[in-house]
Amino acid sequence: MNWFTNLFTSSIGKKVIMSLTGLFLITFLIIHCTINAMIFYNDGGATFSHWGHFMGTNPIIRTLEIVLILGFLFHIIDGFMLWAQNRKARPVKYAKVAHPHKSKWYSRSMGLLGTLILIFLIIHTAHFWIPNRISQGINNWEEGELDLYAKMLVVFQEPWVVIVYLLGCFSLFWHLLHGFRSAFQTLGLNHVKYNGFISFLGTAFSIVVPTIFALMPIAMHFGWVK
Predict the structure, then answer these.
(1) What does the pLDDT look like over 45-94, one tens digit per residue?
(2) Helix, strand, coil abundance in the chain, percent, nearest 5
(3) Domains of the chain
């Protein structure tokens, strides 16, 4: 059991957990982004609502939702633990910090970017996920859903909401840009033969997914989709 304890207490163990939960959450982003992109069918939300209803009422998906929440919690808590551990390792701030060669600012700012994403997630769940689950609890489980498409059309008419979502997507871009490749390196899944492909895939994913998420509030705010 010593290895299991070290997994949660050692620096390497925390990074492994961060990588595994990060890759798991990336799969969630792919599914979430795919369903959200269906608003661009511009069919009054029919396609989006169909698949949203499936995701919200399918027993298997609802069970996996619990795993997803746990994945978020482990990722967030582990991130804060790593940040605190790094701060403790260097309690004295130097007048000038010598950063490692080729170290990017976003790789040194994962704690800040993660915090901004956490704030965005709280706002996002307060807008959509929590009201929908409350509605399902009060009403029939399968028939008591909110019309999320109609709610999005209303919520994204507020300019400040659109700005917050754009900032969240901007933070997600930088977070993924470092986290995607870093996860493979931490887990030892890097090799000179396919490092280039991993780097390309990570960069493409970091651009495409946040861009699609960002286009949603913009398109609804300016009436490009109805």
Answers:
(1) 899 988 887 887 778 887 888 888 888 888 878 777 776 776 676 655 55
(2) 75, 0, 25
(3) 2-89+104-221 (1.20.1300)
